[in-house]
Structures are given as structure tokens and as C-alpha cells.
Design goal:
With about 375 residues, the protein is mainly α. It is built from 18 helices and two strands. The protein is globular. The chain starts with a helix and ends with a helix.
């Protein structure tokens, strides 16, 4: 709805206010007349009308300042007529900082709360709110066009676009806060955007890799919690319930992406996810191959989070003591301070080594760092 309204207004603030006003109008109109057959269309139309009225008033006040239509709209290619994708490319403009691009996209396109976006960046909510406000003002001041860029403009934006879609998927895969482990709406939105990108750029291996990665996540989604919403670890998930059609589709994309040349970070992550999906059981997973893929991933995308994930593979190949050593190196660096998966992984290695008191301390540290209720319950169970 927001993306469709932005297409009319070319102004993010006006679009946001109009969408909010449309919801307020719905409260009284639907109570009086009943819920319409197509509530989504009703809200979108109401938001568009309110936006047009707001812009008309603004035009009058500003002596007919032409904010309604930008010249670029007349030459926009319509190969991918999707408002959400246009808004993603607008938010990922190179004129914005990397953090502003991602924060703005998560907030506006993906509907992630400012608090959760702030949590992802480990900054206060007020700081993230200020960054998003500055980014919106910069888009308005610079008259950044609302469109999918031309082919020669794509390289400067594609990596950011892939990053925000991946981060959206990650946020949906495990919600930073709330009662549910998974936010299906965000996960589905990320997969939709990834598929749209793939339709736009079918020869881009990294786009195919991202689609494959999200397909595997989607295939396993229903088994990550039990009927009560409790977290089920990968080792205990019912693999017979995984969606084999999605996994087969992902496999084809991964193979094509790997054959296209040196793999990038999304292709390598997809290859790792595919290996997990193909394994008949957790114990029978090809852990040596997964560790090799993490080694390759670290060469193209050296981040402490990748190093932490590699430590899990190391522990499965060489034992928990080796995994613990790898985690302690990361812990000493301080790069993942505040990231609850680090103490959680450390706790698991310590538990497997029989160092239960130290494991309990690490589980408690992880528990203190997560705001997701399903993860909190899982960690409390580990604490006993």
C-alpha cells in the first residue's frame, strides 16, 4: 500500500501519512458500512486519494511547486511493474549511506518497526529514527526518482538491494522481538522480492543464489516450531515435512549459479543451505563440505557472523573443543558483543564438553540478549 502510494506522491512522508490516515478512515467507514469485499483495494484507494489531496494543498501553498510528477516517470521502463521493487531501488540509491539504505528499506518497504531495525544495527531506536528521517529528506531534496534503474545503473545498487532483501528474509526467518519465532509475512515478502529481481535479472548468479537460499528457508519454515510455537532445533526437525518441490527448485538455481563463475556470498550461503536440506539426518549432514563452503564464504564475505557459523561446522567435524576455540577467538575480538548467537553457540559447545556450569552461564548470557519469546523459552529450557 505504501509503495503504491509513493508511486503517486513521489514523497515518502506524504505517502506514510496518507496510509495512516486511510487506516483511521477505515475504522469509522467500515464500522458504519461494513468491511468492503476488497479491504486492501479500499485502503489503497483511500490512501491515494488522501495523498493527492495533500499534494494539491501543498502545491497551492508552495505556488504550484511540481512535486506530483517527476520527469523520469515518463521514460520509466515497465518490464517489472511492481511498486515494491521500485521503492526498494529508490531506498537503495547510492546517494544514501549503506546503513540508511537498509534501514529505510526495512522500515518503509518491509514494515519492520523502527525498534527492530535499530536492534538489527545495535543502536538506540532514536538514533535509527533520526537516520531514517534524514534519508527520507535526502531523497526528497535530491529528487531521487522512484523507478527501477536502467541497466547501466544497476551495478551500483544491486548489492544493496540484495542485502536488504536478505536482511528482510533474515528478520522474517527469526524475528528480533515478539512472541513468534518466524514472521511469515516478512519471509514471504522477501521471497517475492527476490523472485521479482530474478525475473528482472535472470543471468545474475547472485540473484539466483539469493532466491535459492530463501527457497530452502521457506521449505523448512513449518518445522522450525512445534504446535505450541516452541523452537525446534535443526537437529530435531521433521525432515519428511520439508517442501521437496521448493528444495528441488533451489537445487537447480544453486547449480546454475555455481556454474556461472566464482560464487558470491549468496550463492555460497545457498549451497550450504542446500546441503543441509539434502541430508537425510542432522548427523548424516556433509559437515566437511559445509566447512569448506564456509571457508570459501569467508574469503568473499569476511564477517564475524560467518565466522561464528563456520565454528558450528568446525565443531561438527573436529569436535566441540575445536568449535569452542573458534568461538573464543571471536569473543575476544569483541566484534559480536550483544549478538546472542555467540554465547548460545558457546553454551552448546560447553554442554557437549560436559562443562555444564559454564554452559549455564553462557545460556544465561544469551537469554539476556534476545527479545524473541520463542528463543527465550528455548534458552530457559536449556538452563533447566
Amino acid at each position: 500500500m505504501l509503495a503504491a502510494t509513493v508511486r503517486v506522491t513521489r514523497d515518502l512522508d506524504v505517502a506514510e501519512e496518507s496510509v495512516q490516515d486511510a487506516y483511521v478512515s477505515a475504522l469509522s467507514a467500515w464500522e458504519r458500512d461494513g468491511v468492503p469485499d476488497r479491504p486492501g483495494a479500499w485502503l489503497t484507494t483511500a490512501a491515494r486519494n488522501k495523498a493527492l489531496n495533500a499534494l494539491a494543498r501543498r502545491q497551492t501553498l508552495r505556488a504550484k511547486l511540481p512535486l506530483l510528477v517527476l520527469p523520469e516517470e515518463l521514460t520509466v521502463p515497465e518490464a517489472i511493474p511492481d511498486d515494491r521493487l521500485r521503492l526498494v531501488f529508490t531506498c537503495c540509491h547510492p546517494a544514501l549511506s549503506a546503513e540508511a539504505r537498509i534501514g529505510l528499506t526495512l522500515r518503509l518497504v518491509c514494515g519492520v518497526s523502527t525498534a527492530d531495525v535499530a536492534s538489527a544495527f545495535l543502536v538506540p531506536e532514536a538514533t535509527m529514527a533520526a537516520r531514517i528521517t534524514r534519508a527520507k529528506k535526502k531523497i526528497a531534496a535530491a529528487r531521487i526518482p522512484y523507478r527501477v534503474p536502467e541497466s547501466d545503473e544497476l551495478p551500483a545498487r544491486l548489492d544493496s538491494v540484495l542485502t536488504v532483501v536478505h536482511l528482510l528474509a533474515t528478520t522474517g526467518h527469526t524475528a528480533p522481538s515478539g512472541d513468534a519465532l518466524v514472521r511469515i509475512d516478512l519471509a514471504e515478502r522477501a521471497l517475492d522480492l527476490a523472485r521479482l529481481l530474478h525475473a528482472l535479472l535472470p543471468e545474475e548468479a547472485e540473484v539466483a543464489g539469493l532466491v535459492a537460499l530463501l527457497l530452502v528457508h521457506r521449505a523448512r519454515e513449518g518445522t522450525r516450531t512445534d504446535e505450541a510455537g516452541r523452537l525446534v532445533p535443526l537437529a530435531d526437525q521433521d525432515r519428511s515435512a520439508w517442501d521437496r518441490n521448493l528444495i528441488a527448485e533451489a537445487d537447480q538455481l544453486v547449480v546454475r549459479a555455481l556454474l556461472a563463475g566464482p560464487p558470491g556470498r549468496f550463492t555460497l550461503q545457498a549451497a550450504i543451505a542446500a546441503l543441509h536440506a539434502q541430508a537425510p539426518s542432522y548427523a548424516e549432514t556433509d559437515w566437511p563440505q559445509i566447512r569448506t563452503l564456509y571457508d570459501a564464504l569467508l574469503r568473499v564475505w569476511r564477517t564475524p557472523v560467518v565466522a561464528l557459523n563456520r565454528a558450528v561446522a568446525v565443531a561438527m567435524v573436529d569436535g566441540p573443543a575445536a568449535g569452542l576455540a573458534a568461538v573464543e577467538v571471536l569473543e575476544a575480538s569483541g566484534e559480536l558483543a550483544g549478538y546472542h548467537y555467540l554465547p548460545a553457540a558457546k553454551a552448546d559447545f560447553l554442554r557437549r564438553l560436559g562443562r555444564f556450569a559454564e554452559a549455564a552461564d553462557a545460556y544465561a548470557a544469551a537469554l539476556a540478549l534476545t527479545d524473541n519469546a520463542a528463543e527465550q523459552d528455548f534458552l530457559r529450557d536449556r538452563l533447566g
